[in-house]
Amino acid sequence: MTNNPTALCHVRPYAGQSSIQTANGSSLPIAAIGDASSKFTDDQVTGKPIAKGPKVGRLFPLFLPVPDFSPCSSIKSFACNNVSDLSMVWHRRLGHPNTQILSHVLNSDLPGNKDRYSLSLECDSCKLGKSKTLPSLCMQVEHLTALILSIVMFGDLPRFTWVYFLCSKSEVFRTFTEFLAYVDNQFSTSIKTLRTDSGGEYLSTEFQAFLASKGIIHQRSCPFTPQQNGVAERKNRHLLDVFSDLHPVSSRFQPGIVYTRRSRPQSLSVAHPISDPTTLQMQSVAAPSVRRSSRVSVPPNRYGFPSSSSGNSISALTAALSKFDIPTCYSHAAKHDCWRQAMQEEIVALEANHTWDIEPCPPLLFLWEYGVNYEETFAPVAKMTTVRTILALVASSDWPLHQMDVKNAFLHGDLKECIYMKPPPGLFPSSTSHVCKLRRSLYGLKQAPRAWFEKFRTTLLQFSFRQSKYDTSLFLRKSDMGIVVLLVYVDDIVITGSDSALLGQLKTHLSESFHMKDLGPLTYFLGLEVHHSPSGISLNQYKYASDLVATAGLQGATSVDTPMELNVKLRKEEGDLLADPSLYRKLVGSLVYLTITRPDISFAVQQVSQFLQTPRHLHLAAVRRIIRYVQGTSTRGLFFPAGNSTRLAAYSDADWAGCADTRRSITGWCVFLGDALISWKSKKQDRVSKSSTESEYRAMSLACSEIIWLRGLLAELDFSETDPTPLHADNTSAIQITANPVYHERTKHIEVDCHSIREAFEARVITLPHISTDLQIADIFTKALPHHRHCLLSSKLMLVDQPASI
């Protein structure tokens, strides 16, 4: 379409009624139509037009501009011309040298040269000569670029890829046998299925007989239907795209480019900035003068070769530290002064703590039996629900929140058993028959955690603290001024309360009893990042989530909107087994710990946790999806608002027959302290329910048990609940069964423990208000939800994006 009739040939009037609609809504009439009289010629590499030619007969002649040359005939005449023309003329005369050589010539003592010139050339001939558009032929030598065919092999999941370049298709069989031996030896696995197209290189008698002898199933796509082998075709397309991006001219360089793209040559790290005090050595040892730098000649860098004294400091540090290996035994460690000093300091600390007595070895008149010479070894640790409850109360009541750490905690425990230990290497200068009789616990003993906790518990009880009946790791003491609460997790201690004076006395008492370290306000606890602000306290696991993404190798993966795909039911026997389930178990275990601050992934993690025994590729794909969701929401965490109410409220829901394998239902419930979420659960029920009412009733019973426990815990902390706690449910029949405990044929088989909710309802511990399904917050713990529904319920869980700690 044009407004210039001369740009067309065979112009003829337009007799139609159509018009041209413009962008502003107006219309233009069509005056005439014709054929194109010119043609654009595009560059095959860049795709941009390089010339335009009018149509003359049946041809399109191209008129290209010719560069204007201005030759000179005399060396002296360059002084009469401007610098730009002179530099270009001499650049051409001297064979197109670089600017450094040309500057040296122009600034030399040639006849007529009176001035000094600074050159900046843009030579079209140099650009054309160095362009990749018209490459010259290379010397025909034996190298990688002589290969013209390639074969791509990769596994199903994960899709590791191997590329082999061939000279002819007859080499396919030999290459496949070598690849089969490589996989068998390096990965201790075998190839079960080979998927290829119907190419003749795969259909030879020799190839088919070899596959039959190895028990390999050969799956072939139909002729002229590459979409049946879409995974392999897409991989080939990806490799070709990479090749065309790096070298869009000739396919002769394809093997070298693909190899370079896969394994880039790494530069050797130079350790001079770390291991050497200086990068240049001077011969004189006399005191330097102030003009020392002018007398040190530094050799200039060569173009293309970086100086050995410069470089990345991080790489230099890595290179310097890589020379020092961590010793694996005493004999290796004793050869280094630093390790001998560290061992001596540890032995001095043990002797100062009177950890052992040196005695002659007693006679052993009995047979050692594993597990008989010690009793309880378990050390209680704080429940995470208790931790969240304490943080919610701190935010609500504006209590101070402090953290302390016990140095060498296990060395403080007192042993009840008589234990003899062989002296550690280096304790005595020569061999001896004496042994160490342990008086205190030591690292590595099975009794050490329990012994340390008993010692710590006794110390607190002597200071008038009492142990909570609802969490054995929680200690509290009430006074006329308020209350002080202490929470211990092995050797990490959190202290808070309303009595500031008693809180200070407690810290002093602990410092006198143990080797303590006061860490100040609580900011980091067991991988949980605690952020304080005037609006409240936020809790997240940003660093832990980032490490999890790195462990899964998904740093550059695209994030997803939901942790689990909608309408997908994972089955136990679906898909191929993982050859090594260790990574799957490691990732699932990390995700379980991440649910401490991320209730939005609880249901998805509960689903993948069912297949730890025999995980399959589909299960691993589901785990990776959860991690991709975490990657996009890594700064998200729980928020406990300031001035919050301390009344409990709970929500309960169930997905009837949600498990595709066992047809058991999925229970989901959550409990709020005011607006702060402190407890939740997503769990498969332990038996099959005959109806949705029964599954909802069982879920309500489990939520009721959590409510009773939380009410007792809050009562110990002086936050007693006088009113019944509302337990919201969306199943009217389940509510009626609880409120009206009559005998019924459909409920007589329900266990007695489930009916405890009736007793709680009659004692007005709970109430059962009905809530519509659209407002049921616990729905997020029972099934996968669409994006908008998932985001809505996540916001109601008080999950907010928080700034990440650096």
Characterise this structure:
- The protein has 806 residues and is α+β, with helices and mostly antiparallel strands.
- The protein has six domains: 5-54, no CATH class; 76-129, no CATH class; 144-259, Nucleotidyltransferase, domain 5, CATH 3.30.420.10; 384-526, no CATH class; 543-637, no CATH class; 644-801, Ribonuclease H-like superfamily/Ribonuclease H (Nucleotidyltransferase, domain 5).
- 32% of the residues lie in helices and 18% in strands.
- It contains 23 helices and 29 strands.
- The strands form nine sheets. A six-stranded antiparallel beta sheet has the order 15-16-17-18-12-19, sandwiched between helices. Strands 20-21-22-23-29 form a five-stranded antiparallel beta sheet.
- Helix 6 packs across helix 7 and helix 16 (542-552) packs antiparallel against helix 17.
- It is extended and about 110 Å long.
- The protein starts with 7 loop residues before the first strand and ends in a 5-residue tail after the last strand.
- Mean pLDDT is 79; it is low at 69-84, 135-148 and 264-323.
Which properties best describe this structure?
single chain; 806 residues; 6 domains; RNaseH-like_sf; Retrovirus-related Pol polyprotein from transposon RE1; Integrase_cat-core; nucleic acid binding
